[in-house]
Design brief:
3 helices; 4 strands; elongated
């Protein structure tokens, strides 16, 4: 089971029981490392104005990408944004920390930043 658009708590509530880690099918998204940018990734509270970054506010440079403020939109755009910053030649990418309850987004970030 991988985190997705429906939270673990919502699934458990609907099923009326806790979820159990079952037989995972092998797919690229189930590997510990999925898409990881070439650049080093730093999770930050607020991106530096000159940094290549994924931000929640208005970008302060052309090397920053404004991300959606909802978990589903953010997850849908994350890999494209990282690809775009890779294509721009970023050595370091700052990612403004998303809310802690965005379980699927955090799963994507862990996979994208694993070495």
């Amino acid at each position: 089971l991988r985190p997705g658009g429906i939270s673990r708590a919502q699934l458990e509530d609907a099923l009326g029981k806790p979820l159990v880690q079952g037989d995972l099918r092998r797919s690229p998204g189930s590997h510990p490392r999925h898409y990881a940018p070439r650049a080093r990734v730093e999770l930050v509270t607020e991106a530096s104005p000159e940094a290549c970054a994924l931000v929640f506010t208005e970008p302060r440079s052309p090397r920053q990408i404004r991300m959606p403020k909802d978990a589903a939109g953010y997850a849908a755009h994350l890999y494209r944004a990282l690809h775009d910053l890779d294509a721009a030649g970023a050595d370091v990418v700052q990612i403004e920390t998303p809310p802690g309850d965005w379980e699927a987004v955090w799963d994507h970030l862990r996979r994208a930043t694993s070495g």
